[in-house]
Amino acid sequence: MTPLEALSSTEVTLFAPEKARINQAIYDAGIELAARLGDMGALERWIDEKLDHQEGGVQWWRANVRRAGGDRTIVAESATILTVAQAERILKYDKQTISKWRHKLGKRAEYREAISKAARKKLELEKADNHRARGTGENEWWTPARYIEAARLP
Known about the structure:
Blueprint: H1 3-8, H2 20-37, H3 40-64, H4 84-91, H5 95-105, H6 108-127, H7 145-152
Helix pairs in contact: 2-3, 2-6, 3-5, 3-6
């Protein structure tokens, strides 16, 4: 079994609030591995799974979290009404993250393309052995070993 198949066999399709952060990490690992292996089909599937999971998180928040001063009829049918602090403890994500997901998922195609582009860009930078930090989002970079070895030659 390849690493990608092993990761793909992980069951994380249903939204489970107490496992939200772990599942997001699994999706991110799947995206990175698919990009490294150059499997664009798998990359697109992992991105879709990640976005579906985030959509589940947004829906869970709407269904279970009490809105301060808002219309409570939307959540009145829910068995458990949580405060924002309680929901943040369960999810291990804050209200701003959920809001960010909701906003980005409103333009799902653009959000999907941004994730895909970032994964492909990271892969292309690694393949090229780019020794500069420009455009990578990293604030540190190291001189590639080939330059160090060349400097040591007599």
